[in-house]
Design brief:
Blueprint: H1 20-37, H2 44-47, E1 52-56, E2 59-62, E3 67-70, H3 73-76, H4 85-97, H5 109-121, H6 124-127, E4 130-134, H7 139-154, E5 159-162, H8 171-176, E6 193-196, H9 210-226, E7 237-240, E8 243-244, E9 250-251, H10 254-266, E10 271-274, E11 298-301, E12 313-317, H11 336-351, H12 354-371, E13 379-385, E14 388-393, H13 410-422, E15 425-426, E16 428-430, E17 436-439, H14 447-464
Parallel strand pairs: 3-15, 5-6, 5-7, 7-10, 10-11
Antiparallel strand pairs: 1-2, 2-3, 4-12, 8-9, 11-12, 13-14, 14-17, 16-17
Helix pairs in contact: 4-11, 5-11, 9-10, 12-14, 13-14
C-alpha cells in the first residue's frame, strides 16, 4: 500500500526557524537528565522520546522543532486538544479575578458553576437524584472513593470486576484492575475481588464470540452470584467500563450492559461505571452509559472533565450518601482552575456538537481501517466507539484460536508505534500484551487531520509488516 507524502503544517519535519542540531542536542540533554533522575516507573517518556515545548489543538512541537499529530490526547484527557482558546480564556479569567486557587473543599462560585455544568450533561433521571463528591486530582482516587462509598452504604466488602479492566494504580483500584503484570508485584492487590468475564468478541473468553459470548458472560455472572457454593459473598459493588480503554478499546454490547444493570439491581448490588476515559463525548455520547440507556448507581469521572487540568469526581444516587464528614477527603479537592476549565469544556462540547462529531468522525475512521484489513493482514480487529478506537495487530501466519483469531503481535505493534513517531504521529499501545494501537484524538479533530492520522498509521503498518516482519 503506497501512501503519498503528507504536507500538512503538522508534519514531522522541523520548522525552518529552528537550529536543528542545537535543538536536537538540547532535547537529548533533557531526556538524558530526566532518565537519570526520574523513577523507573516512567511510561510514556519511554515510548515517546520527545521534549514538547509548544502545543495547540492536535499538534505538539518538540525542542528539536519536529511537529507531531497527537492521537493520545493525554490518554483521553484533552477533549478539546492542547491549549484550546476556551480553556485558555477560562484560565485567564479565573487568574485575573483574584479567586483563590486552593480552598480545600470550601464552596466557591467556580465549584458551583462547574457542578451546574456537569449536572446539565447527565441523563435527567440520574441528575435528579445525584450527589457529587470531589476527589483528589486523579481518576484512581475517584475509583477509591466510589468503592469506599458503596462499602460504607452496604456494610459489605467485596467487589465484582472484569477481565481486561483498568481502574487505576492505588490499592483498591488496582485490585479491581485486570492486568496481572501491574498487580503481581503488589502484595494483596487482588484481595476481595471476584473477576468476571468481560465480552471481547474478537477473543471471546468462552471461545464463541459475537452476541453469544456476551450472553454467556451474563449467564455466568448471574449463576455465579446465585450459586450457594459459588464462593462469592454478596459484594459491595460491581465496577465496569462501558468501553475498556487500557484494555484495548473493547466496547461492551449495550444488551450486556443492560443485563449487568438488571442482575445487580435485582440482587441489591450497587453498579459503578468507570467513565474516566469514556466520558465527555469520547464515545459519541456524552457519557458512554447513554448508549445502553442504563442508570448506574455511581459514575466515576476524571480526565476530560477538568478541561486538561487535574480533576476527579464521583456522581452517585443520593440513596448511597451515607458518609460521615471527612470520610473521604484530600488536600487538592478544591482545584479552582480545573473547575473553571472543566465547566468551560463541558459547555463547549455541548454547544459545538462535539459529541455528534466524535460519533461521525470515529465511524468514518473505523470504516477506513476496516477497509484496509484486506491489504494489511496484520490488522486482526478494528473496534471501539466514537473517537476511542483500537487496532489489534496479529501474526497472520500463526494458528487461529476457536474464534478464528490469530496470535497477538506485540513486537510488531511496538515497531509500528515507533514508525508512527518517525512520521510525526503519536499513538499508544494497549490491550492484551500491548498488541493494540489505540487512537484517542481530540474531539476537535478536523477531517484533514483524521485522514492524515490514518495515512501515517497505515503507512507505518505497511512498512513495518512487510514480508517476514510480522512477529
Amino acid at each position: 500500500m503506497t501512501v503519498p507524502p503528507i504536507t500538512l503544517p503538522t508534519s514531522g519535519k522541523p520548522s525552518a526557524s529552528t537550529s536543528t542540531s542545537a535543538s536536537a542536542s538540547a532535547s537529548a540533554s533533557i531526556l538524558r537528565r530526566q532518565r537519570d533522575r526520574e523513577s523507573s516507573a516512567r511510561t510514556y517518556a519511554r515510548s515517546f522520546p520527545i521534549v514538547p515545548v509548544r502545543a495547540k489543538g492536535m499538534m505538539i512541537e518538540g525542542t528539536d522543532g519536529r511537529r507531531y499529530l497527537d492521537c493520545l490526547s493525554g490518554a483521553g484527557t484533552l477533549a478539546l486538544g492542547h491549549n484550546h482558546p476556551v480553556v485558555m480564556e477560562a484560565i485567564r479569567r479565573t487568574m485575573e479575578s483574584g479567586a483563590p486557587l486552593h480552598v480545600l473543599d470550601l464552596a466557591t462560585p467556580e465549584k458551583d458553576d462547574f457542578t451546574d455544568a456537569l449536572f446539565e450533561t447527565l441523563p435527567k433521571d440520574f441528575a435528579d437524584r445525584a450527589r457529587v463528591h470531589f476527589c483528589g486530582p486523579a481518576g484512581t482516587d475517584a475509583v477509591e472513593a466510589a468503592l469506599k462509598l458503596m462499602q460504607t452504604a452496604t456494610g459489605r466488602r467485596g467487589v465484582l470486576a472484569f477481565t481486561g479492566a483498568y481502574h487505576g494504580m492505588t490499592a483498591g483500584a488496582l485490585g479491581a484492575t485486570g492486568s496481572v503484570a501491574v498487580k503481581e508485584q503488589v502484595a494483596g492487590g487482588a484481595a476481595e475481588v471476584t473477576r468476571l468475564p468481560y465480552p471481547y468478541a474478537y477473543r471471546c473468553p468462552f471461545g464463541v464470540g459475537g452476541e453469544r459470548g456476551a450472553e454467556l458472560s451474563a449467564t455466568y455472572t448471574e449463576r455465579l452470584l446465585d450459586d450457594p457454593s459459588g464462593g462469592v459473598v454478596r459484594p459491595a459493588a460491581m465496577i465496569l467500563e462501558a468501553v475498556q480503554g487500557e484494555g484495548g478499546a473493547v466496547p461492551a454490547p449495550d444488551g450486556w450492559l443492560r443485563e449487568m444493570r438488571r442482575i445487580t439491581a435485582e440482587r441489591g448490588i450497587p453498579l459503578i461505571v468507570d467513565e474516566v476515559q469514556t466520558g465527555v463525548g469520547r464515545t459519541g455520547a456524552f457519557w458512554a452509559v447513554e448508549h445502553s440507556g442504563i442508570r448506574p448507581d455511581a459514575i466515576v469521572m476524571s480526565k476530560a472533565i477538568g478541561g486538561s487540568l487535574p480533576l476527579a469526581v464521583i456522581v452517585y444516587d443520593q440513596d448511597y450518601d451515607g458518609w460521615l464528614p471527612g470520610a473521604h477527603t484530600g488536600t487538592f479537592r478544591g482545584n479552582t482552575l480545573a473547575m473553571a476549565t472543566g465547566a468551560a469544556t463541558l459547555r463547549y462540547v455541548t454547544q459545538e456538537g462535539l459529541v455528534e462529531r466524535a460519533a461521525t468522525v470515529g465511524a468514518r475512521m473505523k470504516a477506513r481501517l476496516e477497509g484496509a484489513r484486506a491489504e494489511l493482514p496484520v490488522i486482526g480487529d478494528v473496534r471501539g466507539r466514537g473517537l476511542m478506537i483500537g487496532v489489534e495487530l496479529i501474526d497472520p501466519e500463526g494458528p487461529v484460536d476457536s474464534c478464528g483469531a490469530h496470535p497477538y503481535a506485540p513486537e510488531l505493534a511496538g515497531r509500528v508505534r515507533a514508525a508512527c513517531l518517525d512520521r510525526g504521529l503519536i499513538v499508544e499501545l494497549g490491550g492484551r500484551f500491548d498488541a493494540t494501537l489505540r487512537l484517542l484524538p481530540p474531539l476537535t479533530i478536523s477531517d484533514e487531520q483524521a485522514e492524515a492520522v490514518l495515512d501515517r498509521l497505515m503507512d507505518a503498518i505497511t512498512e513495518v509488516s512487510g514480508p517476514g516482519r510480522t512477529s
